[in-house]
Every structure is written in structure tokens, then in C-alpha cells.
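// run 5 | inverse folding | seed 20
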């Protein structure tokens, strides 16, 4: 397995592209600026230099390359597998069919030695939690399912999904990775703190929240936000809802995607079932960085540090906004823990997909999610 990572910024590559890595066994994953014209030349270079390789990618709210964060750039990983194989599928997705699309992806990609399904999805027209329920429905035991929703700052109107040379807006691309020698690990942590009382969802439909404790959801949320209420939905990134579903042991975070003043409702990035318990949450800077550290450390438990590996970081844009100048500290810590044999690239997303211990995957907001990928080489 050969790995190269590249950064395209201000019209230039940070190093010469190695076109000899082009092959039918080469997978290229790229994360780039929402300002597509600023990185189009870089995308075209990759397409031209790797005509037989498979190329997937998504827009980002900030690009991660090694131990730094960039903007208006293109972060690229090139992986030429020596023993493993992969397949790709593309689906159009909507909030109404998210479960079925997730289920169909797994049914289509399932096969011998399936080790991982990596997904990149549109954000404007997807129900993240329904998607992960579908992905988990018939997921093979031990298969790592991870990925994220396209980044777009807080505008939600400039996203793109890439497969080959085709740029799209309402699709999801999924990569199945197979092989007896392939090793894939994942880690996910949040680091947000509970704030205030537990409250019950008294009226909701899928990812639309109408009332909490029989009070209009938007009205109650605005009261909680105080001076930040005028900046909704963008300010909602600072104050997600912590959701505990019936039968679940661990809470998950739900970010605000839109508000409806007329209906006094909130649209979230994932479902929020009626009868579930929610608590307002707030950021603690130290806990956020500790969470990223824990996510990286969880990967190191089973990783053979002599092997060359690729790590893809899917980090929530809210973390970058809240951490501000300390956002790069979080990336540096992850990079340092992983070590020099791991090539780190990634993007800032609006929703993260990560494995859960029971099998399958779950949908997260405000998390740091990491995927580590390498082929075991007995000659090392």
C-alpha cells in the first residue's frame, strides 16, 4: 500500500504529484473549498494525472492537512492498494429516503472481506440519523462504517460531492473497502457539556422539533440562547441539543440546521424522536481538545505503528468555530499521537458518521471522528 498526500493552495501544489501511483487499484479522496473556482485547477490536475484511479470528494468548511488547518484549499490523499480492493456506489438522497438509501448502500457493497464503508453525503437534503439507521440495518459484523456530511460553513448552499469528474449536490457516494490484510479503525469523541435540566420532546416529526415540555421549541431555544438568538441558525452551532433516545445508554448531539419562525420549530441535522430526553449543551474548550485526544488514542490500541497508514479526520465545523485560534491545537494533538507513519488529512463537516460498539454506526454532530486505514505487511 502506497500513500501520498497533497495540498493545493493559491493555485499551487505543495509538492510534485506522483502520477505513477495511478492504477485501477488507486483510491483518491479529496476535501476542498466551497469556493469551487479556487480549487478547480487542482481538481482538474488530479483528474488528468490519475485517469484510471477512482476519485471521490466533498466540499469542506476547512481542510485538514497533516497538523494544520487550511481554507480555500484542496487536501488530497492518494492510496494505491497492493492487496486490497474497493467498490464505489452513488445514490441520490433526500430526507424522505435517507433510511432506504443507507440500507441499499450496505446491500450493494456487502461482500467477502468487507472491512469498511466510507461515505460522503450531501447535507442540505439528508436526515443523518435515518441514514445511519439504514447503514446499520444489515451491516456485517465487524465492518467499520464512517464518513461525514459535506461542509459548507453555516450557509448550507455551496456544497459539492465529487465522483470522478462529476460534481453533484444532492448525492451520497460510498466506498466499500475489502481485503484480508486490510486494517481499519475508527474513533469518535465529542467533549460538550450538559447545561440545564433534562427536558422531554413532546412533539416532533423525524428531524423537526416542535415542542419541548409542551412549550414551543424555537421559543424555548431562543430564551436559552439569549443574545445569540438573533444569529440563528448559525449560532446554534455553539449550543447543540444533547439527545438521549429511549433504550440508548449514551447521548448524541444534534445541531440546528434551520428554524421556522411561523411554526416555532427547529430543524435538526438528525432525527429527534418524540418522547426522548434532551438537554441543552455548551462547549468547554479543554474538554473539546481532550475529546480529540481520546479519539486519536483509541485508534492506537490496535494499530501496528510500524505500518504506513492513512488517517481521515472528519471534524465538526462547530468545533472550529468555538475553538477559534485553538482549533489547530486540536489537530496538532491528533497528529502527534498518530505519529510520523500516519498521513493525516481531513475536513470540517456538518455531521459525522462513526462506528458504535454494538455494531453498525451512529450519526453525530460536534464530534471529532477519525478513520485509520492500512494494509498489514508481514515483511515490515
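// decoded
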Amino acid at each position: 500500500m502506497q500513500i501520498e498526500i497533497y495540498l493545493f493552495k493559491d493555485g499551487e501544489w505543495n509538492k510534485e504529484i506522483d502520477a505513477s501511483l495511478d492504477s485501477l487499484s488507486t483510491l483518491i479522496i479529496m476535501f476542498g473549498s466551497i469556493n469551487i473556482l479556487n480549487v478547480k485547477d487542482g481538481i482538474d490536475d488530479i483528474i488528468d494525472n490519475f485517469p484510471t484511479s477512482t476519485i471521490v470528494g466533498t466540499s469542506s468548511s476547512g481542510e485538514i492537512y497533516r497538523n494544520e488547518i487550511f481554507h480555500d484549499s484542496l487536501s488530497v490523499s492518494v492510496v494505491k492498494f497492493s492487496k486490497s480492493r474497493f467498490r464505489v456506489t452513488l445514490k441520490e438522497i433526500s430526507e424522505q429516503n435517507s433510511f432506504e438509501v443507507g440500507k441499499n448502500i450496505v446491500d450493494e457493497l456487502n461482500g467477502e472481506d468487507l472491512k469498511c464503508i466510507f461515505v460522503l453525503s450531501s447535507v442540505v437534503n439528508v436526515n443523518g440519523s435515518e441514514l445511519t439507521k439504514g447503514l446499520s440495518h444489515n451491516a456485517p459484523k465487524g465492518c467499520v462504517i464512517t464518513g461525514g456530511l459535506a461542509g459548507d460553513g453555516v450557509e448550507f448552499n455551496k456544497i459539492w460531492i465529487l465522483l470522478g469528474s462529476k460534481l453533484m449536490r444532492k448525492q451520497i457516494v460510498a466506498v466499500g473497502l475489502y481485503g484480508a490484510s486490510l486494517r481499519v479503525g475508527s474513533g469518535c469523541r465529542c467533549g460538550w457539556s450538559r447545561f440545564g435540566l433534562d427536558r422531554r420532546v413532546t412533539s416532533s416529526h423525524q428531524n423537526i422539533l416542535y415542542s419541548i415540555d409542551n412549550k414551543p421549541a424555537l421559543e424555548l431555544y431562543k430564551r436559552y440562547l439569549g443574545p445569540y438568538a438573533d444569529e440563528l441558525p448559525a449560532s446554534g452551532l455553539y449550543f447543540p441539543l444533547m439527545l438521549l433516545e429511549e433504550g440508548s445508554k449514551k447521548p448524541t448531539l444534534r445541531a440546528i440546521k434551520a428554524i421556522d419562525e411561523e411554526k416555532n420549530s427547529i430543524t435538526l441535522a438528525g432525527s429527534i424522536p418524540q418522547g426522548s430526553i434532551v438537554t441543552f449543551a455548551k462547549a468547554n474548550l479543554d474538554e473539546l481538545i481532550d475529546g480529540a485526544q481520546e479519539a486519536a488514542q483509541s485508534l492506537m490500541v490496535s494499530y501496528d505503528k510500524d505500518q504506513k497508514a492513512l488517517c481521515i479526520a472528519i471534524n465538526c465545523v462547530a468545533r472550529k468555530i468555538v475553538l477559534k485560534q485553538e482549533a489547530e491545537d486540536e489537530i496538532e494533538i491528533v497528529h502527534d499521537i498518530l505519529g510520523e507513519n500516519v498521513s493525516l488529512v481531513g475536513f470540517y463537516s456538518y455531521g459525522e458518521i462513526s462506528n458504535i460498539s454494538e455494531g453498525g454506526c451512529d450519526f453525530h454532530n460536534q464530534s471529532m471522528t477519525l478513520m485509520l486505514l492500512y494494509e498489514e505487511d508481514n515483511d515490515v
